[in-house]
Amino acid sequence: MNELERFQSNCKQGQVAPGLWLTLRVDLGEQPNQTAKNFLGVIRSCLEAIEARGITEEIWPTDEQWKQLLPSWFVKSFEGYTPQEIYEGSWRWDYGSWLDSMKERVWHWWGCQQNNRVLTVQLQLDSWPYSIGALKYLARVAGGQLAVIEDRGMIQAGSVVVDNVYPVQAQKPQVDVNLAI
Amino acid sequence: MGQLNSDRAYRVQGGDSKERLLVTSNGNIEIQGKGMLFLNFNQEVRALEFLARRGDHSYIVRFAVTSEFLGFIRDISVDEDKARLYPDRPIRVDTLYPDQFGIRSNLFDELLEHVIPGSAEVIYP
């Protein structure tokens, strides 16, 4: 079963991926169903493009082609911000950098489970360290926030004693400069 | 190991995942593939924590590099949210912890040149 099939069937929900794994918990905010729909819609678009179209790194779509493959609301989330604004520490991403991060991703979708305001996502990893910054951005613009990353066991005296879970650093609140005094 | 002015690099791989680093019989490394290579430097406890609950087929590759190389990577690395603007530079990832980078293939030769010969080893759970 490939990644797209796992996503579509979600037959692995609640299961930890074999090998290297990562669990994300996304706080879905005030409109959890809509946020989950937004979040999963972008994932679906990416996986469909990558797997169903047989896209490899050698024939990766252009930035313009991706605009046709991704939900329009998501593409628009990158618009209106200068490179300088992105450079100065905003949580915003440059559109091309987000696509590159997806191209170079070392995670694969394993399954997900929604419980009220929390979407738990299981990923299979190619390696540690890893990068999930693109998913953090996606969670934010979808209407939620990546709240917790769980990726390891805690070692004490050579044995695992408890799952080690750590919260994601609080992100800077968005400031509307037009309203700033 | 044991040399001054060196740092340790770590990568957990294996299991069902890609094995991008191969450790040769004489303790050197070979890099498989051209995609971005994610490495951690000097965070052994974190590497062991990550490995702790993985299957028997996952393992850590550890090797030493010159401190000059790590300093170089630190100096030129950029945040991933603007990585497109600096297409040849390494990216900083998982910034809750220091010195975790995605290294692009244009720097693979430089990385290999700065590996301390004979320092590479595999650590199993």
Model description:
Chain A contains seven helices and five strands, in the order H-E-H-H-H-H-H-E-E-H-E-E. Chain A has helices at 3-9, 32-52, 63-69, 72-76, 83-87, 95-103, 133-142, and strands at residues 21-27, 107-115, 118-125, 145-156, 159-167. Helices cover 35% and strands 25% of the residues of chain A. In chain A, strand 4 (145-156) and strand 5 (159-167) form a beta hairpin. Chain A has one domain. Chain A starts with a helix and ends in a 14-residue tail after the last strand. In chain B, the strands form two sheets. Chain B has a seven-stranded mixed beta sheet. A two-stranded antiparallel ribbon of chain B has the order 2-3. Chain B is built from three helices and nine strands. Chain B is an alpha+beta fold and 125 residues long. Chain B has one domain (6-123). The interface between A and B is large, with 42 and 40 residues.
What series of H and E elements makes up the topology of chain A?
Answer: HEHHHHHEEHEE
Task: Please state how the strands of the largest beta sheet of chain B are arranged side by side.
Answer: 6-7-8-4-1-5-9
Radius of gyration of chain A: 17 Å
Strand content of chain B: 25-35%
Dominant shape of chain A: globular
Mean pLDDT across residues of chain B: 92
Draw up the topology in text.
The complex is a heterodimer of chains A (181) and B (125).
Chain A: H1 3-9, E1 21-27, H2 32-52, H3 63-69, H4 72-76, H5 83-87, H6 95-103, E2 107-115, E3 118-125, H7 133-142, E4 145-156, E5 159-167
Helix pairs in contact in A: 1-2, 2-7
Chain B: E1 6-14, E2 21-23, E3 29-31, E4 37-41, H1 44-51, E5 58-66, H2 67-76, E6 78-79, E7 91-92, E8 100-103, H3 108-113, E9 121-123
Parallel strand pairs in B: 6-7
Antiparallel strand pairs in B: 1-4, 1-5, 2-3, 4-8, 5-9, 7-8
Quickly list its features.
heterodimer; A: 181 residues; alpha+beta; five-stranded antiparallel β-sheet; 5 strands; 35% helix; 25% strand; globular; disordered C terminus; B: 125 residues; seven-stranded mixed β-sheet; two-stranded antiparallel sheet
